[in-house]
Specification:
Elements (H helix, E strand, L loop, with lengths): L6 E2 L5 E2 L34 H5 L4 E5 L5 H7 L19 E4 L3 H12 L4 E4 L18 H6 L3 H7 L2 E3 L1 E5 L7 E4 L10 E3 L2 H14 L3 E3 L3 E8 L2 E7 L5 E4 L3 E4 L6 H5 L3 E3 L5 E9 L12 E6 L2 E7 L4 E9 H10 L1 H10 L2 H6 L4 E2 L3 E5 L3 E3 L3 E2 L2 E3 L18
Parallel strand pairs: 4-5, 4-14, 5-10, 7-17, 14-24
Antiparallel strand pairs: 1-2, 3-21, 6-9, 7-8, 11-12, 12-13, 15-22, 16-19, 16-20, 16-21, 17-18, 18-19, 23-24
This protein binds flavin-adenine dinucleotide.
Length: about 400
């Protein structure tokens, strides 16, 4: 059950939490109809519309030996085993949610709590790796609203009291503290996303949403606002579902946004991120130990995020136009070279060991021309993402 306290959002607006009754869906309320009714969305990826084809897809490249030992431990845990393989698939849920990341899990939980039949189709089997570890305190009321706070607290993620910057003309580090936000929460969390996302997805299940992992949505057709969703299960079986409403929470895969060429890439943020995980990294001193450190240097900036498994998430954000070829030619060499160019990070990693592959992600800053359409709504990264410097991704 969701507590019925009003929520406070970052702008200070107050929301009522969903009632435990069946609510009208946005499609029933006559959301704006986009484009010609009945416009069929093309199958992905073969027939992407021309404008989207011209833009490179957000992409992550993984190189280097092995995976993090912490991920392996979590992958071995009982909760990673398939649990629903033998159960029947509902053919017509009220709401079909594409993607079981934070946006999909939260939407599914709230809709299930409101009495709707919800089906989440998630392409991967959780836990799966994801970037985006440093949360905002404003996210905590949302975790409360979906009833996930006890599990998140029990899990032992580091409490993040704020952030520290080495940025601008000021040479000394400066910090902000969530406790300085009047009426806000005094901390956020630094989370290992594989674990955090799985807790949220399990929470959605516990609230009554049906979750199918290893089910990839391949296309969404819109016909008079009544969507038809095509998907493929783990064994290759094709599915065709006709929910009343679709929430696209597929992250940067942006299933509907790509098919409808809704995405508009940002002219200013043309960055790429190259990142990995270290053991033995020096933490910030004293009460700053759980802060994110954001350190600017000549070529961009670094994030430096302590995690509860003892690793440090270290990522460089640099101009994609200048660094793309270098990072893709020699990811680890370029990554280490970038670290060497930022003394604030290099000094703290002097005695540390890289314990993960080096990953690259690019083409992640965009918005969508519309966030809704006939029978669908875009949520989370499937709608837009700005830049990691604000740590707003999971919150939004
Ligand atoms: C370099 C970088 C650093 C970042 N750092 C931070 C940070 O410190 N803090 C922060 O808050 N945010 C950060 N972010 C942003 C954060 O990663 C995202 O905003 C957040 O993960 C979005 O959540 P989501 O649920 O919308 O999407 P996701 O978390 O991406 O979840 C989408 C899910 O959809 C599934 N999916 C995809 N395609 C399909 C399909 N066809 N069918 C079914 N399922 C599908 C995927 O497997 C995935 O599980 C960062 C982003 C980048 C690029």
């Amino acid at each position: 059950m969701v507590p019925r306290r009003p929520l406070r959002d970052p702008q200070g607006a107050r929301h009522r939490l969903p009632r435990q009754v069946r609510q009208p869906l946005p499609a029933d309320r006559g959301l704006p109809v986009l484009g010609p009714v009945g416009l069929a969305l093309a199958d992905l990826p073969q027939h992407r519309q021309a404008a989207d084809r011209a833009r490179p897809a957000a992409d992550a490249v993984t190189v280097g030996p092995g995976v993090r030992s912490s991920s392996r431990r979590f992958l071995d845990s009982p909760r990673s085993r398939p649990v629903e393989a033998e159960q029947p698939m509902r053919d017509a849920p009220d709401v079909l949610v594409i993607g079981g990341g934070p946006a999909g899990s939260v939407a599914a939980t709230l809709l299930a709590d409101a009495g709707h039949r919800v089906l989440v189709l998630e392409r991967e089997r959780f836990p799966r790796y994801h970037i985006g570890e440093s949360l905002l305190s404003a996210t905590l009321p949302i975790l409360d609203a979906v009833g996930a706070t006890p599990a998140i607290e029990r899990h032992g993620f580091l409490r993040k009291p704020g952030g520290t910057f080495l940025w601008g003309r000021q040479r000394a580090p400066w910090s902000f503290w969530f406790r300085e936000d009047p009426g806000g929460r005094p901390h956020a969390y630094q989370v290992v996303r594989a674990e955090f996302d799985q807790l949220l997805l399990e929470n959605a299940r516990a609230h009554g949403a049906e979750v199918r992992e290893e089910h990839a949505v391949t296309a969404v057709e819109a016909d008079d606002g009544r969507p038809v969703v095509h998907a493929r299960g783990a064994g290759g079986a094709a599915l065709r579902l006709a929910p009343r409403f679709v929430i696209d929470a597929s992250g940067q895969a942006a299933v509907i946004g790509r098919a409808r060429a809704l995405r508009q890439f940002d002219d200013f943020f043309k960055n790429l991120a190259v990142f990995g995980y270290f053991r033995g990294a020096e933490r910030l001193p004293g009460e700053l130990a759980n802060h994110i450190l954001s350190a600017a240097f000549a070529d961009g900036w670094f994030w430096y995020i302590p995690l509860h498994d003892g690793t440090m998430s270290v990522g460089a954000v640099v101009d994609a136009r200048r660094w793309r070829a270098l990072t893709e030619g020699d990811p680890e060499g370029t990554y280490r070279g970038l670290i060497a160019r930022c003394p604030a990070i290099a000094e703290r990693l002097a005695g540390a060991t890289l314990v993960s592959p080096v990953r690259i992600i690019r083409d992640y800053s965009y918005t969508s021309t519309r966030f809704t359409g006939p029978g669908f709504l875009l949520a989370g990264d499937a709608a837009c993402f700005i830049d990691p410097v604000f740590s707003t991704g999971v919150h939004l």
